[in-house]
UniProtKB/TrEMBL annotation:
Pfam families, alphabetized: Alpha-amylase
Enzyme class: isomerase
Gene source species: Kibdelosporangium banguiense
Keyword Ion transport among UniProt keywords: no
A GO MF label: (1,4)-alpha-D-glucan 1-alpha-D-glucosylmutase activity
Keywords, in A-Z order: Isomerase
The keyword Signal is assigned to this record: no
EC id: 5.4.99.15
Gene3D superfamilies referenced in this protein's UniProt entry, alphabetically: Glycosidases, Maltooligosyl trehalose synthase, domain 2, Maltooligosyl trehalose synthase, domain 3, Maltooligosyl trehalose synthase, domain 4
Name under which the protein is recorded: (1->4)-alpha-D-glucan 1-alpha-D-glucosylmutase
Highest taxon of the lineage: Bacteria
Residues of the Glycosyl hydrolase family 13 catalytic domain: 3-609
Length: 726
């Protein structure tokens, strides 16, 4: 059941099942086709995101439990809204062992546990290593209520192993508590990237698949869930086989995968899914609003960094340091560690799919030849799983905080080395896109929101002016690390107005992810203190200057925001609206983008603009207007959202108009691109559109026929959504 659109909600303490039910009428009025929810199964107590599932058999008690879930489902069904649920087949949360009954049993009974096969543990290396200790000492262990304790951490004591000191009891267990620093090199269970509190499960085992999916599949069979979003399929042993099994179990569900595609990569045709979660569309949409003429100036501003060398270096570093335990596990299959360390960084994308016969992205020679010789072997799955981890940690989580030439491009699925997207590339790729695939501009994982990127795109049109203010501001209030300094100025301008507290939290994360002068595990207290003090100093000394500069690029930023939103909402695919982004939203990376959303404000504003198109101003009502009109049209007239054909203007400023036709030529989406350059050149002047017939702009209610002067069409909004004959 493919929805007309989705609206992403981050469930948690601020958004429970009952609260979803309360805002469902607003989402229906907005024009949404389905609620798209973060994981809804029981998660680690206190979880703010739900990706650390501890019991996949029940609805999350923290979100309201089964009764509240059914109330939510009833309300959504009453309003004809679908429900798309995010599932996490790769891993489970183990930070709080008593909360995860399967993990608790494994710790208590070791290889004899009925759940020993559920987790991806290398039992041949000995007891399960649990990296929670602050040092190598076991002196702080205690025994309380029949459990082994380490501060707030609780662990089981196997039957028959009682008696003696806590240290003696510990030595008899099927697990060993060890210094947390040993995890990256010695861990003997697979994890999610380098997060030791998320243990990988062997979903390729039919028994594990059934146990972990029973509840969700039952909800689908009962029509309570209409779609699934599959988290991190690249972490699975064989994603293609898993997805074929899932499709067989849920043949009618809309099924999309969080597959990070490179710019030249396509989704494997062997996967029986409806598409991706939309990072490929994000790259294309954002890219057409970036001026390629700004590339050289930004390269010089950043010191002409070598992206490919940096990526190769950081991938090798990630494999050697963060993921050494995974490398060692591969080497136990008969491949020398050094060979593995040299092979993994050579992957140009997240992983290959040798078991599905897709080998184009597999590095040639050496280990690659072994993999091709045995495509269904363990070596293939271990290499491919770890390659995805190396790419994520080396590039997405490190390089993308170091290569700060133009940070609007630093998103998963994007290539920061490609300065924007040519219009011809957009048309070619979108014309071939699946109508059933999700499209997105903001997600819970994006480094910065769509509106931040839209404003940053303006800078690509004024690179020399921006470079001048960066040099000026840096001379007055510098950060001690150059790439962080450039990232900080782009962040301030892109997210303005931003509080000192939000900026401080962001820079702390950015500097530690970059791992240049500090990191999460090797802290530089002097540097950290200087970075922490910087935001307040900047606001005090340069606040008025930054406000003035941000004010000058505000309106073209709004133009880009409306333009990229309309393109996303009207292009092929199922558009997702991330929570709150129907108004201007200048959020940064998680957890900044998980802040509570004021839905009452949005409900009131939607009512106020029903009859009168609002002005473009700080309120964001204009964006709400564009979103609601486009979503409602998708819901009411789905026949208009089929096919794809480029629409070109003629005249002096034709290159500043971007458009396309859909629905057999009965719908036209028209947007402004590079608005600063348009104004400098004298505006639209004689630029015209000549789509045959009579048209109505659903955003303004105005009608047109014959040749349409763009200056009149786009005088109220920088975008238009035209429908023939209405």
């Amino acid at each position: 059941m493919i929805p007309s659109s989705t609206y992403r909600l981050q469930l948690g303490p601020e958004m429970t099942f009952d609260q979803v039910a309360e805002i469902a009428d607003y989402l229906a009025a907005l024009g949404v086709g389905a609620v798209y929810a973060s994981p809804v199964l029981a998660a680690t107590p206190g979880s703010t995101h739900g990706y650390d599932v501890v019991d996949p058999t029940i609805a999350s008690p923290a979100l309201g439990g089964e009764q509240a879930r059914m109330r939510m489902v009833g309300e959504l069904q009453e309003l004809e809204l679908g429900l798309v649920v995010d599932i996490v087949p790769n891993h489970m949360g183990i930070a709080d062992p008593p909360a995860n009954p399967w993990w608790w049993d494994v710790l208590a009974n070791g290889r004899e546990s009925e759940y020993a096969r559920f987790f991806d543990i290398d039992w041949d290396t000995g007891p399960v290593l649990v990296p929670v200790l602050g040092s190598d000492s076991l002196d702080e262990l205690s025994i309380e209520d029949g459990e082994l304790r380490y501060h707030e951490h609780r662990f089981p004591i196997a039957s028959g192993t009682e008696g003696g000191t806590p240290q003696e009891v510990h030595e008899r267990q099927h697990y060993r508590l060890v210094n947390w620093r040993r995890a990256n090199s010695e861990l003997n269970y697979r994890r999610f990237f380098d997060i030791t509190t998320l243990a990988a499960v062997r979903v390729e085992d039919p028994a594990v698949f059934e146990a972990t999916h029973a509840a969700v599949l039952r909800w689908i069979a009962n029509l309570e869930v209409t779609g699934l979003r599959v988290d991190h399929p690249d972490g699975l042993a064989n994603p293609g086989e898993y997805l074929r099994q899932l499709r067989a179990a849920a043949p009618s569900a809309w099924l999309v995968v969080e597959k990070i595609l490179g710019p030249d990569e396509v989704l494997p045709s062997t996967w029986p899914v409806d598409g991706t979660t939309g990072y490929d569309a994000l790259r294309l949409v954002c890219g057409i609003f970036i001026d390629p003429a700004g590339e050289q100036a930004f390269s010089e501003l950043a010191g002409n960094q070598d992206l490919h060398a940096m990526e190769a270096d950081r991938k090798r570093w990630a494999a050697e340091n963060l993921l050494r335990a995974e490398v060692k596990r591969i080497s136990r299959l008969g491949v020398p560690e050094e060979a593995v360390l040299g092979f993994l960084p050579r992957f140009g994308v997240y992983r290959s799919y040798v078991a599905d016969g897709i080998t184009s992205s597999l590095p040639s020679g050496g280990i690659g030849e072994q993999m091709l010789a045995s495509p269904d072997g363990e070596l293939v799955s271990r290499i491919e799983q770890t390659a995805a981890m190396v790419m994520a940690k080396g590039v997405e989580d490190t390089t993308f905080y170091r290569y700060n030439r133009f940070v609007a491009l630093n998103e998963v699925g994007s290539d920061p080395g490609r300065f924007g997207v040519p219009v011809a590339e957009f048309h070619t790729k979108v014309a071939a896109a699946a109508e059933s695939s999700m499209t997105a501009l903001s997600t819970h994982d994006t480094k910065r929101s769509e509106d931040v990127r839209a404003r940053l795109a303006v800078l690509s049109e004024i690179p020399d002016e921006f470079a001048e203010v960066v040099h000026c501001w840096t001379a007055k209030v510098p950060l001690p690390e150059p790439t962080l300094n450039l990232l900080a100025w782009q962040t301030i301008v892109g997210a303005w107005p931003i509080s000192s507290a939000r900026l401080q939290a962001y820079l702390e994360k950015a500097s530690r992810e970059a791992k240049i002068s500090t990191s999460w595990t090797e802290r530089n207290e002097e540097f950290d203190a200087e970075v922490a003090a910087w935001p307040e100093r900047v606001m005090a000394e340069l606040g008025s200057e930054i406000r003035e500069f941000a004010g000058r690029i505000q309106r073209p930023g709004w133009s880009n925001s409306l333009g990229q939103k309309l393109v996303q909402l009207a292009m092929p695919g199922v558009p997702d609206v991330y929570q709150g982004t129907e108004l201007w939203d200048f959020s940064l990376v998680d957890p900044d983008n998980r802040r509570p959303v004021d839905f009452e404000l949005r409900r009131e504003m939607l009512g106020e603009i029903e009859d009168t198109p609002p002005p473009i101003d700080e309120s964001g009502a204009a964006k709400l207007h564009v979103v609601s009109r486009a979503l409602r049209l998708r819901w009411d007239r789905p026949e208009l959202f089929t096919g794809y054909e480029p629409l070109h203007a003629t005249g002096s400023a034709a290159e500043h108009l971007f458009g396309f036709l859909r629905g057999g030529g009965n719908l036209a989406a028209v947007v402004t691109r590079l608005p600063v350059g348009l104004e400098r050149s004298g505006g639209w002047r004689d630029t015209e559109l000549s789509p045959a017939g009579e048209w109505t702009d659903v955003l303004t209610g105005r009608s047109y026929s014959g040749s349409i002067p763009v200056s009149g069409l786009l005088d109220q909004y920088p975008v238009a959504l035209l429908v023939r004959g209405v």
